[in-house]
Amino acid sequence: RMATSQPLRGKTTCKKIFWAVFPHACFILSLVIYAFLGALMFSHIEGTREVTVTEEYRTFLQNLMYLARKLSDNVTENEMFEDDIRELFNTADPVWFIKPEDRWGFFGSLFFCCTVFTTVGYGNTYPVTRVGKYLCMLYALFGIPLMFLVLTDMGDILATVLSKSYNEFRKLQSKILASKLCSGSTCSKRHELKSRAQSKIVINEPLTIMEVLRSQSGVKQRRVKYRNVELFEMLIARENENTQPARNKSLERWSSCPELTREKTVSRVIKNFDKIGKELEKLDVPIVLMVLVIFVYISCAAAILPNWEKNMDFQEAFYFCFITLTTIGFGDTKLEHPKFFLFFSLYIIIGMEIVFIAFKLGQDRLIVLYKKVISFCAEKNMTSKKIYPK
After folding, report:
1. What Rg do the C-alpha atoms of the chain give, in angstroms?
2. b or e along 6-43 (b: 16 or more beta carbons within 10 Å of the residue's beta carbon)?
3. What is the pTM of this model?
4. pLDDT tens, 223-275?
5. Boundaries of each Potassium channel domain copy (predicted)?
6. Contact 104, 42 (CB under 8 A)
7. How confident is the model over 366-377, as pLDDT tens digits?
8. Distance between alpha carbon 209 and the CA centroid of its chain, in Å?
9. Which of 119, 176, 242, 290 qualifies as a FRET site for 225, CA 20 to 30 Å off?
10. d(Cα 26, Cα 118) in Å, to the nearest integer?
């Protein structure tokens, strides 16, 4: 029986782990599939479009040739030429100088899809065709809620990790402070009291109820047999021992009837889906700690990013990562190699979750602050009415 029960326990634990991880993996996998399908769609639509020479492009080339001929050796005229050329290039459309097959390859389209559903939108890559624009709106309509769902779900995991690590840090800090404040004699006395208390609580063999009653009836003959606390603890231990086989019987029923186990696992998975976002509501860590985590997280990426983006230094990369993770995305800092940055997509998603948690904490702190200000103003108003009645 022991040999057969151990593999069954291993299988049940594997099933529990699978059904616990299943909702999180389902969200992430659906987002990855959605991004790949969008990349295939936009690369086919925008990458295969025909480049037509428009009338605006011809006018631009004519004006550029006219300004080039106008260039002379005179310094004042050259200063005017710089102003004219600047105004001319401001009217230029960047699409004129881009080859669709180069910009809208699979990796370029995948990068564009990531900027759409993460709401970053740098502005250097955008659909040109009418069909591409309509599909971009439809793609964002379903992709942005899916991305926020993934952020909320993964944010729960990060919130649990942060809260547990912060609580463990506080416990360690309190233990260190207690060990410093506690002297040798008082600590030894406390340890003796704890050991005595534990020795009283330990019960090796819990008695039956009849034995407990017999011993209680024999208290008159022998003055000190059992204390009331010990009797109560024996009864609890005996009751726990009696309730243990009932749980095993229920497990045997579930193992003999697979329909019940299916219903149980399905209800557990549905409960896991219903619990999304609950851990974020419980999170209570200092906002300074979250700012420090964000600073370290962005600094690590800012140190790695200039290795393949040669036009960036540490400060420029730090600025770019901050603008990306906060979903501002001005587009003033452009990437030369979006293929390499796509491997950074996991970094973007986790970073957006950290920033999302920080914004949530900041929002909670602001709500508490507003409540305090409103209550303070209301109390002042009430006291002024009492002091100066009409």
Report:
1. 34
2. eeeeeeeeeeeeeeeeebbeebeeebeebbeebbebbb
3. 0.67
4. 444 556 666 666 677 666 655 544 444 444 444 455 545 555 566 666 666 66
5. 101-158, 293-363
6. yes
7. 888 888 888 888
8. 53
9. 242
10. 18
